[in-house]
């Protein structure tokens, strides 16, 4: 079964409401399994975070399984410092995890916990300024 992450645009108020509903369901004992989600407040925010270079890192990790961050930087032909910074952000978002690298000293192996990222943009919810 594919591991899928849902990504979308959601206002702060809608995110708060969704979290409140999830908390109430949990408190009442109702178990509803939902796909993991990552939501941004605007299309601009999504574009700033999920850049082409960062998506390239996710694809390279998934398809080429580099043994370390250094190896990943070489694979994508990017500076190690920039790759490390991008991976730190992707880790904060839950898009990348690190496991101890075997046979690489203190190296960490980046791992992508998803097979797919499903991006949904509800055009009706975008304001005129976001759509521009």
Walk me through what this model shows:
The protein is an alpha/beta fold. It has one domain: Arc Repressor Mutant, subunit A. Helix content is 46%, strand content 17%. The chain has helices spanning 12-27, 43-49, 52-64, 69-76, 80-92, 128-131, and strands at residues 4-9, 37-40, 97-100, 108-111, 116-120. A three-stranded parallel sheet has the order 2-1-5. It has a two-stranded antiparallel ribbon with strand order 3-4. Strand 1 (4-9), helix 1 (12-27) and strand 2 form a beta-alpha-beta unit. The chain is globular, with a radius of gyration of 17 Å. The termini are far apart. The mean pLDDT is 85.
Spans with pLDDT under 50 lasting ≥5 residues? none
CATH-derived topology: Arc Repressor Mutant, subunit A
Strand order of the largest sheet: 2-1-5
Number of domains: 1
User: Which range best describes the helical content: under 10%, 10-25%, 25-40%, 40-55%, 55-70% or over 70%?
Assistant: 40-55%
Structural class, judged by helices and strands? alpha/beta
* Global mean pLDDT: 85
């Amino acid at each position: 079964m594919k591991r899928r992450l849902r990504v979308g645009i959601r206002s702060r108020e809608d995110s708060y409401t969704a979290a409140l509903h999830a908390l109430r369901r949990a408190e009442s004992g109702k178990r509803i399994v939902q796909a993991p989600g990552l939501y941004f407040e605007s299309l601009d925010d999504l574009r700033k975070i999920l850049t082409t270079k960062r998506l390239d890192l996710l694809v390279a990790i998934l398809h080429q399984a580099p043994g370390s961050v250094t190896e990943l930087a070489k694979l994508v032909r990017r500076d190690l410092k920039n790759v490390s910074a991008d991976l730190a952000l992707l880790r904060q978002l839950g898009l990348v995890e690190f496991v101890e690298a075997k046979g690489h000293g203190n190296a960490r192996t980046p791992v992508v916990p998803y097979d797919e990222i499903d991006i949904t943009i509800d055009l009706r919810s975008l304001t005129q300024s976001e759509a521009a």
